[in-house]
Amino acid sequence: MMRLLYFAAFAWAWGALAGQIPPSTEWTLAELIGLNEPSRDPAFAPIPPSHASREGLYLRTSARDAFLEMAAAAERDGIHLVAVSAARNFAYQNGIWNRKWARPQYAGWSDLEKARDILKYSAMPGSSRHHWGTEIDLNSLENDYFTSGEGRAVAAWLEAHAASFGFHLVYTADPQRPGYLPERWHWSYMPLSAPMLAAYNECVELSVLQDLEVAGMAWADSLRILTDFVNGIDAGH
Ligand SMILES: [Zn+2]
After folding, report:
1. pTM for this predicted structure
2. How far is the CA of 3 from the centre of ligand 1 (A)?
3. Which of 57, 122, 138, 165 has the lowest CB atom count within 10 Å?
């Protein structure tokens, strides 16, 4: 029965993808919450140095291939796309989270206040879409970069063409959208991330996250991590 429900969830998500056919893959709970190692996982492939800010950036293979196709098309239009972050597993995300948690500026803050502030841009480990290997941060982690000059040209190119390669902005400026603040650099490979979100919603309960050792996770329920953050994406997706 669970298996049927699982596939029903996929079928629903796939149907929403207007004819794009994802591979017939199932994901383990561990993969959905980032308890994997992309560099040693045959389902992942590296982003070559020509389009990566550093070594060691991986995506799931179909997402990586789609990104390289998109990057080649952009190059022909004089736009250089560079991945600055891609798949991040639980351990990596936990490193980001803990570094921010220890910021001197948070001295005297409550755990809830700290978590809420970090969540403006960074996911609680176990709840990041970057765990899935479907998400890529492009060119800059500053929204301002995309408002003028080269960055503005990059943003305009992506807005015009990314969807035809399967990539969509999920953290848009729509004031109705809950969760993270707008991120003009974060692109999601929807042919995979839509069914992975459905799988995540099917498999991951709050208790699963609370079993992970994460600073502030006791507040995950109050912060609406699953409803507002994991699912707080652009309404069109
Ligand atoms: Zn991102």
Report:
1. 0.88
2. 30
3. 122
pLDDT of 217 above 60: yes
Amino acid, single-letter form, for residue 68: L
> What spacing in Å lies between the alpha carbon of 117 and ligand 1's midpoint?
16
> 215: which residues sit within 8 A by CB, 6+ positions away?
97, 98, 101, 111, 114, 115
Q: Ligand 1 centre and the CA of 126: distance in Å?
A: 14
Please tell me the distance between residue 24's alpha carbon and the centre of ligand 1 in angstroms.
25
Note whether residue 178 is domain-resident.
no
The tens digit of pLDDT for each residue in 138-162 reads 999 999 999 999 999 999 999 999 9
Q: How far is the CA of 185 from the centre of ligand 1 (A)?
A: 7
Q: Report the CATH number at residue 203.
A: 3.30.1380
% of the chain beyond a pLDDT of 70: 89
Identity (one letter) of the amino acid at 233? I
Q: How far is the CA of 1 from the centre of ligand 1 (A)?
A: 34
30 assigned to some structural domain: yes
C-alpha separations of 230 from 47, 78, 119, 150, 201 in Å: 25, 34, 11, 31, 9
Owning domain of residue 96: 2-14+25-138+190-230
C-alpha span between 85 and 207 (Å, rounded): 28
Domain count along the chain: 1
CA of 111 to the centre of ligand 1 (A): 23
What distance in angstroms lies between residue 129's CA and the mean position of ligand 1's atoms? 8
Calculate mean pLDDT across residues 34-61. 98
